[in-house]
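S.,

Sequence below, as promised.
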Amino acid sequence: MTGRFISFEGIDGAGKSTQIAAIATWFRERGDEVVLTREPGGSALAEELRALVLNRPMDSLTELLLMFAGRRDHLQTRIVPALAGGKTVLCDRFTDSSFAYQGGGRGLPLAMLDALADWVQDGTEPELTFWFDLPPDLAAARRAGAREADRIEAQQLDFFDRVRAGFAARAEQAPQRVVRIDASVTPDDVWTQIEAVLQRRYPA
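The prediction came back faster than expected:
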């Protein structure tokens, strides 16, 4: 039996966490066993790499390689076994974030990311991705005071403009998979958008 793999993308401050919890409840009420996970991180090794990526100085290529190293372990130890067991995997960030942050934001060659994705993922990718789209200045205002910014969150707004453009490019390339959600509205209005997609994709 094969489970469902759904990812959630967007700039920090877009409100993903609140909605992921609501989506988990939606699937559980339908009888699904749900696995909640995240990237960077999601497995014991990947969480250690997450701490390095978010807090230690490094160049862009090192950052990218650590991201994909963590993703490989996350896939092998958590995501793939869960899918094989018929579970619904909800992942806060996946490879689209690498294309947006390291590709768009850092300017690394997209061909390099394509090659890494092919090697690391071995064909495993989300069947549905919710992209929580939000202007970077609004995202920064929401993040302000919430917690101390990590190394990536501390970048300037022009970096996040490039990240947003990276997400938009991914959405354009995979319109059947990536669904844009207007994250600038209230949480209730965000949920209304999401629920409509869920009901259409996964009818009772």
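The CA atoms of residues 18 and 187 lie 8 Å apart.

Coffee later?
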